[in-house]
Each structure stands twice: as structure tokens, then as C-alpha cells.
Amino acid sequence: MTNAELAQSANLLREFKKLYVYKYALSAGIIGLAIVIQKSLWHYIAPAPYIFFYPAVILASLYGDGISAIIMSALAAQYFFVEPYNTLIPEGAGAWLRLLIFVASASLIRFLTRALALATLEARKNFAALEQEKSIREAFVATLTHDLRTPLAAAKMNVEFITKGRIKGDEVIPALLLVLQSIRRLDQMLEDLLNIDKIKVGKGLPIEPTSCNLTKVVKETIYELSPISDGRINDRTQNDIVGNYDCKAIKRVVENLCANAIKYGSKETPITVTLQQEPKDVTLAVHNYGSAISPSEIDLIFEPYKRSMSAETSNQKGWGFGPDSC
User: Fold this and answer.
1) Is the pTM here over 0.85, yes or no?
2) What CATH number does the domain located at 148-290 have?
3) For the chain, which terminus, N or C, has the lower number of CB atoms within 10 Å?
4) Where are the domains of the chain?
């Protein structure tokens, strides 16, 4: 073993010793308290030398050391409350039988107390796990519901352009294809919403990495957002970047960032989307002009239901999910 491992083992041993000293001391204190109470009431309970040692064993089993409490209780009862007093050796078969009955019943009480404590602890853990799973599922539903707005807005905008005659002739078919893509996107999101039972405690929101062409995902998303972006999004992606990613999750990230840039950025300036391959990572950046978030509010963008002051005072409605929903 290395010196660091030896030092760690020595520290663990010291902590272990401290814990046992604490448990033994606590058990001794509990038994001592039982002796004091029983002595003060001995005039009324003289026929029952072990009566206050049973609850003492229960307390010691929960907070101290139950086995040592049973031994100390048996010795204390024999010494102080069983005739002849001031001796640790029972005299006669009756005294031995009473002592054995106490040890057996106290051991059973200790076992049941520990079992009940462990069952209670397990129940609390299960309840906490269910609460955590419930919170994760609620967050998933809320964020997915938030994300439904982007493809819905794109489809709605295209349909309005067609019905109002702003899109005519050869432009109608591409516009309808965009509507179809948005509807398919909505259908996929609703399917994810119905599959909410996939969420498990400790695993967070479901991520399903597969072979994914990030460049294609980004380009498709930019194209699908064109009805609500008025063509202001500049695509600065590099050549195809392929890897194991969750395409649906990446698409939601790009949609959220671009939708926020469209919604809260300057309407007269372009939005630039960059996808760049780094030595070990891939960087996705969405840049827009407009009112910047103040440094004091930067952390709020990753908290659900929080919006910056500029967003609150703007005419744009929002749910306050932002990047947290990604």
C-alpha cells in the first residue's frame, strides 16, 4: 500500500474507533439514566427489576449499541435490583431464569427495533426517490411543453403567409413542406411526452445518443425556423460533424437558442449560428445583437421560471425556461 492509502486507512480506523466509543458511551449513559429512574421509583416497582431497562435497550438500539446495552442492563439489574443485592452472580434457578428471559426478550426487542428503524429509513428513501422522480417528470413536461411553441409558431406563420397571399406560386410547395416538417416535429415531441415513464430516478431526463450529423441537424433547424426568423439567421456551420449525440436533444437546444435570439434580439440585425469542431469538443454558438443581459442576471438564465429584467419589461411573453430547458 502507498503512504496515502496507509494514511487513509489509519484515518478510517480512527473514525471507526471514535464512532464505537461514542456508541458505547451513549449506551452507558442511557443505562445509567435507567438505573437512576428505577432507583428513585424502586419503592413502587420492587417486584419488576428489569422494567426500565427495556426502554433503555430500545433507545440504545436506535442511537447507541444495543448489544452492549443488553449486557450492561442485565448486570445493572442483577447488581442493584435483584436479591441478594450488590452481586453480579444470580443465586438460584429462579434468578437465572429471570435473567435469561430478560436477555432473550431484550435481544428480540433490539432486533425488532433495528428492523423497524431500517424499514423506516428505506421507506423515507423510497419516498424521496418518488418525489425526485415526480419533480424530474414535471420538469420534463414543462420544458417539452415550452418547446412545442417553436415548431407550432413556424407552422402557423407559414400557413398565415399562404392564406394571406404573401407566399404564391412556386413558393407554396416549399412552405407547405416546412409546415409538414413542423407538424412532424410536434408529433415527435408529443410522443416524447407520452413516453414520460422512461424517466428514472438518478438518471434525469432521457438522453439517447446515436450516430448523428450535427451539421445536418443545425441546418435543418435553421431552415425550419425561417418563417419566424425572416431569413435573419446566418448559417456559419463547417463541414459535416458526425458523432454519437442525441439528435432530438441537440435540435431542441438549437431551437431554444435561435428562438430566444429571434424573440429578444434586435429585429434589424442578423443572427449568426456557428458550429465548429474543436480538438476534443464541438462548439455551438448562437450570436445576436440587442439588449444584453446584465452580469448580475447571467445566472438566472439557467434557473426555471426566472427571466431577466429586460425580458420582463419587454413586450415578449415567456415562460422563463430558457437554456435550463435544454
Assistant:
1) no
2) 3.30.565
3) N
4) 3-128, 148-290
